[in-house]
Design a protein that fits this description.
globular; 12 helices; alpha/beta; binds magnesium ion; binds adenosine-5'-triphosphate
C-alpha cells in the first residue's frame, strides 16, 4: 500500500506576539494515510485537527518533523503547487468557499485558474457536478441553494481540480440533518466509487464510524488510532480525549453495565440492532 500522507513527528506553533512564549499547536503528530483510505480525525476543540489539516495542503508548514503528500516533501517550496493539485480541501462554511453567483462558474473557477482550456472546461464541470449529484444546477445561483447543496457545490469545485486526496474540515458542522446526510453520501461515493482518499475531520462520532481508520487527537498529538470499533471500544482513552463514543456504542456499554454483554461492540445503530436481534 502507498502512503499518500505520511507525517512524522510534526510540530507547529503559531506565530506569537513578541515576548510571549510560543505554544505548540502540534506537539509531534505522526499519522499515515494510505491511498484510497477513508480516515476520520476526532478530537476536542483546540486539539490541533485544523492545524494538521492545513499542513496537508501546505497552508501551514511544519517547524519540525517531516511530511510527505503523494510522495512530495511538503518542506520543499518547489512542491507546494504539486501538493495542492493533489490534495483539495473543503471547509465548514460553504458560503466562504463559493466564489461566483452562478454554479457552473463557481465549479469552473479552480480548473480555469489551472489553465484548463476553455473547450475542456465544460466537461470538467459536468463531471464534477455529476459526482456530487448536482447536475442540472449549472445555471442556478449558489446562494439560493440549501446548505447541503451549497456544500456539494463547494465539493464539486474541489473535485473539478481532480485531486487524489480530499481533506474535509468539519464539512457538516453548519448543516441540518438532511444536508449532513447529503454531504456524507457524497463523501462515501467519492471514496468508494471514485477512489478518492478521504480525510474527514468531524465532531460527529456517527460520521467517524464509517471510516476505515480513526485517529484521535488530544492537545496537539495523536493519542489513539485504529478501526472505529477499536477506537470506540477504548472507553477510557476516549474520555481522556474529551470524547463520547457514538450512541450505539454508549448503549452497548449501558447494557453491559446492566449485565447484558452483546459480545461485539457496535459502532453504528444498524450493528446494535443486528446484535440485539441475534
Ligand atoms: N491562527 C491561529 N493563531 C494562533 N493560534 C491558533 C490559530 N489557530 C489555532 N490556534 C491554536 O492552535 C491550537 C489548535 O487549534 P486548531 O484550530 O487546530 O484545533 P481544532 O482541533 O481544529 O479545534 P476545533 O474542533 O475547535 O476546530 C489551539 O490552541 C488554537 O487556539
Ligand atoms: Mg478545527
Amino acid at each position: 500500500m502507498t502512503k499518500v500522507i505520511d507525517a512524522n513527528n510534526i510540530k507547529y506553533a503559531y506565530p506569537t506576539i513578541e515576548g510571549t512564549e510560543p505554544k505548540l499547536a502540534l506537539k509531534g503528530v505522526t499519522l499515515a494515510v494510505e491511498q484510497g483510505q477513508f480516515v476520520a480525525i476526532l478530537g476536542h476543540n483546540g486539539s490541533g485537527k485544523s492545524t494538521f489539516a492545513k499542513h496537508i495542503n501546505v497552508l501551514l508548514r511544519a517547524q519540525e518533523g517531516t511530511l510527505t503528500v503523494v510522495g512530495l516533501d511538503a518542506a520543499d517550496e518547489a512542491n507546494v503547487w504539486g501538493i495542492r493539485s493533489h490534495a483539495g480541501m473543503v471547509f465548514q462554511n460553504p458560503d466562504n468557499q463559493l466564489v461566483s453567483t452562478v454554479v457552473e462558474e463557481d465549479v469552473a473557477f479552480g480548473p480555469e485558474n489551472l489553465g484548463v482550456p476553455h473547450e475542456e472546461l465544460r466537461g470538467w464541470v459536468t463531471e464534477a457536478l455529476e459526482a456530487v449529484g448536482m447536475q442540472g444546477f449549472e445555471k442556478r445561483a449558489p446562494h439560493m441553494l440549501s446548505g447541503g447543496q451549497k456544500q456539494r457545490i463547494a465539493i464539486a469545485g474541489v473535485l473539478a481540480m481532480h485531486p487524489d486526496i480530499i481533506v474535509f474540515d468539519e464539512p457538516t458542522a453548519m448543516l441540518d440533518p438532511q444536508g449532513r446526510a447529503e454531504v456524507m453520501d457524497t463523501i462515501r461515493y467519492l471514496n468508494r466509487e471514485e477512489g478518492k482518499t478521504i480525510v474527514l475531520i468531524t465532531h460527529y462520532m456517527e460520521e467517524a464510524s464509517e471510516a476505515d481508520r480513526v485517529f484521535v487527537m488530544t492537545d496537539g498529538a495523536v493519542t489513539d488510532e485504529g478501526t472505529p470499533r477499536e477506537v470506540f471500544s477504548h472507553k477510557d482513552r476516549l474520555e481522556e480525549a474529551g470524547l463520547l463514543p457514538p450512541l450505539a456504542t454508549q448503549v452497548y456499554y449501558d447494557l453491559k453495565e446492566k449485565g447484558l454483554d452483546l459480545g461485539i461492540c457496535p459502532v453504528t445503530l444498524k450493528e446494535l440492532v443486528d446484535e440485539l436481534c441475534r
